[in-house]
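tool_call predict_complex ligand=magnesium ion
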Amino acid sequence: PDRANASLLDGLDPDQRAAAEITDGPVLIIAGPGTGKTRTLTHRLAHLVVERGVDPEHCLAITFTRRAAEEMGERLTALAPEHAPRLTIATFHSLGLRMLRELSGRAGLTPAFGIADQARQLDLAAEAAGDEQTARRLLDARSRRRGADEGMPPELADAADRYTKALRQSDLVDFDDLIGLPVELLESDADLAASFRDRYRWISVDEYQDVDDQQYRLLRLLAPADGNLTAIGDPDQAIYRFRGANVGFFLRFREDFPGARTVQLTRNYRSSANILAASLQAISPTTLVPERELRPMGDHEDDRVGVHSAANERAEASFVARTIEQLLGGASFHSFDSGRITTDATHGLGFSDFAVLYRTDRQANAVMEGLTRAGLPFQKRSHDRITDRPGVRPILAELAFAPTAGAASAEPSVTDRLLRAADAVIERIPRAEREEAAVDIHTAVDLLKPRAEECGADMERFRDELALGVEVDTWDPRADRVSLLTLHAAKGLEFPVVFVVGCEDGLLPLRWPGASPEGADEEEVREERRLLFVGMTRAQRHLFLSHAAERVRQGSARQSARSPFLADVDTSVCERVGEAAARRKQRDTQLRLL
Ligand code: ATP
Ligand code: MG
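tool_result ok
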């Protein structure tokens, strides 16, 4: 385009551009996976500050994970280098923390207050409640009350007060406070709320389908009904109901913000036609967006979705490893039904182009063993909080007691202290248990080190980041490794090759062994279907859905049937794969022996 007319919106398609050009008033952008929602938000923000002259200090972009915030920050640094550092790009929790640091005095805290991890919460709650069981109920009720605005059960009220007092006396907040406290402060002081509204005049929220009540309340306090709020998301990807998220806020956006304009993005740039078709079929029985329009734009070669039946989880993991090896070698890929041999133009695939997704973190073990047997490197991440991982807590405790360096000039970086703390911790483990426990510690160090390096010598920042972090925040897109992720952790990401393993009744939808299918909550089952939809739509070029006929769950081997969701995927877009490849391998071995 003509240089003089070149715009930061040039990289967008007409729908995306139309969405990004609306800079004033509330906007709802409804769009399916891979339609460039995140990309649209990013370009819109750059356009706003560079081409519309909006002060970056007035812009707030809310993402779902820290990783997503970082990525958006990087892109904005490339698009608008002078303005990017002054934009606020945050998750709800990091925004809450930022507000609380500023308002600490009003909440009875010092500006250097800490964030209690779950173990510390439990200690304090047990003291307040008298026993551990009541303590757990108390914490649970507290999260739920904050999440869903329920009352505290009367018998827990006193203990809850004692718990909160104890937190504050130790200059601590807990995770629920991070958004709950700013909401309380803003709700009780109209001037304060007005001053924040004045600061954040342009707000955008990615993954709006997964906001919870507290986050919603905070948004309503920050954005007036005619405010410049852009909400973007896909109701069919709402997967955090178990944590209090409520897709209802997305669905009623136009009632909350009556003047809102609505834009749909309809072009999918991520997935091949067959992957997209299969995904849409899988979600269709209970879709929340029946009028959805979504068409593939990619020019990827068009393999059908591979469905693999394995005897057990070990065989399933071998299938995954074998298929990765084949695709890495650019080798031919054998399908079972047609006997067709597709020579795959996958030259140039690296380990990082593969992701294995699963419903429960437990399932990762079999996959890790399979990849290890095949010598394939991997990185595994869940959506759990970092501080809840085994190994992390002892290191952090050690860091807290480590003497702070004396002379300012000799102040070591956070990384040195982290490594030293880990060595001490390991030394203290009794020799007999050391080897096993050290694995946890080393894994924890691997997770923590990149963060520590970023924080330089700023120990306080390091602590905040850890307190807020979930494992997937430390997922490294540049590492040359296969990614092992829970379906929850895979949200927003994309990979050329995706395996969704464990497509079984009982895992997708998830059900505890022994629980009857009749007892399942319908809304829960719908959410499980959405999880599969999220998993399938991460794939760009190849998607494999596998299931095992037998799997060890809770200590004993159990038979399982294929996920009922697979029945909705038409045979014209998928095919059975794997067996032929296994047989071929066997034959090759025999040939070599001859
Ligand atoms: P999800 O629902 O999974 O979060 P999304 O709607 O946020 O998906 P993005 O991650 O923003 O989608 O984009 C998906 C892919 O499509 C990315 O690789 C992105 O670079 C590419 N893409 C988006 N818009 C365009 C475009 N106009 N032209 C070319 N590629 C695009
Ligand atoms: Mg996205």
